[in-house]
Amino acid sequence: MLRAVIFDMDGVIIDSEPDHARAALMVFERYGADVDISYCSSFIGSSTKKMCEDAVDRFGIDVSVDELLDEMNRAKKELAVREGYKPIEGVKEVIKVLYRAGVKLAVASSSSPSEIEDVVKALGIKKYFNKLVSSSNVEKPKPAPDTFNLALSKLGVSEKETIVIEDSEFGVEAAKAAGMACIGYINPNSGSQNLAKADVLLEKFTGLSVHFFEYTLQRFQGMPVQITSTKRLIIRELAVSDVKELYPIYTDAKVRKYIENIDDYMENEMEKQKAYIKNVYAFYGYGLWGVFSKTTGKIIGRCGIENHVVDGKEEIMLSYLLDSQHWGYGYALECCHAVLEYAREELSIHRIVAVIDVGNLRSIKTAQKLGMECEKDFTHNGRKVHLYAINL
């Protein structure tokens, strides 16, 4: 269960990294240090103090670390007073959505306590946060987990029920070292950050719901997300453990007749599914899901939507396969209808297509019953096919 979300501040709540670099370069110039923007960028996600320690030692700057740090903080504050803070688009709305849902919130930043306080006050969001945590109050800054461990302690929650949002490689490493799920926010102004260890990557905050965070945590915990249900079926994300149960369906010659790219080796399929959970389910929020019987609880096939290039055009394509023992009883129509409804209501998708082999009469009939219309015939991967489409 999701109980808390911890936000990094610089690069996640405010787009501050360029201003921080400008302030640092001005201070370094006063001391004649030959420093460029790439040097400043190498400390994104860590602390300004860490950069000052390195700079005093590397460039022989003739002041103490604390004196240099004070100058850096003053320069950053002068820029903020003069130019203000620039919030990341959509982040304030997400903070409010989480707050209204009863999720505990914290800032855990490498900035100083006074900087964090100034930012949340200036943006009018202080009241939404339960705790404000600075790495200046821990022994080791990010990428060590200390900052996030302190935030967990102050919030009174465990790492298993908490998500971190970070824009830096150091921040992601710190979150993973603390044992937490992590959303990597891709901020172009944060430099070239390696966020590969994050559980999901995010390009923007606009339009995010609480479900997005709940589903991210479920996937992190190895729990597949239930998508929807019908009178007879449950449709949910496939877990790696489901592949073994799905594989006998793949080997049915009747099923394989019109299905491409089914791997003959279960181990390969299982490895592919691990990647699919992270790179498709987590990133897009949709994919091919498992179809389960409510009566038996067993998997009877898969159904869902995926991004494909169809006859040179990017489309969102509906596809399914079912155990041949369940053919002829309306299960295909039932699961496909549920997927189309989910796509319209929850994902705001407006057009979905299906590519159907001209000889696959069962699927053609299902598409027509769903209200899909044949737009054209063409050759796809060496097969003659119909393109069916529906506007939701």
Domain module count: 3
Arrangement of strands in the largest sheet: 3-2-1-4-5-6
Shape verdict: elongated
Q: Return the CATH class of the largest domain.
A: Alpha Beta
What sequence of helices (H) and strands (E) makes up the elements? Answer: EHHHHHEHEHEHEEHEEHHHEEEHEHEE
Number of contiguous helices: 14
Report the structural category: alpha/beta
Number of strands: 14
CATH architect. name of the largest domain: 3-Layer(aba) Sandwich
Q: Which fold name corresponds to the CATH topology of the largest domain?
A: Aminopeptidase
Largest sheet: 6 strands, parallel
Helix content: 25-40%
Strand fraction: 15-25%
Rg, rounded, reads: 26 Å
Output the CATH homologous superfamily of the largest domain. Gcn5-related N-acetyltransferase (GNAT)
Overall pLDDT? 89
Question: What is the rounded distance between the termini?
Answer: 33 Å
The stretches of 5 or more residues where confidence is low (pLDDT under 50) are none
